[in-house]
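Record passed on here:
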Amino acid sequence: MKVKVLFVCMGNICRSPTAEAVFRHYVENAGMSEHILIDSAGTHDYHIGEPPDARTRRAAQQRGYDMSALRGRQVGADDFERFDYVLAMDRANLAILQRLAQHGDGDPHLFLEYAKHHKEREVPDPYYGGAEGFERVLDMVEDAAEGLLQHIRKRHFQRD
């Protein structure tokens, strides 16, 4: 059995690929790569086929996360049938996902619902800011990724 996780932001070049790379790193370190499939997408088609933003890649690389293979794609209606978890970075993208999910059987949520140390529920878009915004995104994503992995382990892989 594979648990499938999809991270979604607007353009799929900053927040959602960060979440994909961080979560993949955590899953690999936990020895669970064969049990969890991870992807990311954007609600808009602005950056299909493009690598993540250079500032995003730089910040991630400084913390040991590899984004070299990631390319932007747009979320589709079939993603709600394919993925067990469809996780939005903010409420605006969550609203878009909820409209798309009405045609499928998915139930999108905010990714930061899994954060343990951040009370915010939206990952801010760092695109128009400075380097500190990308660092803040990484801090939030690391927190939520840890909580998500704990949740998946408990819900899908622990035997009573």
About this structure: The chain has a mean pLDDT of 95.
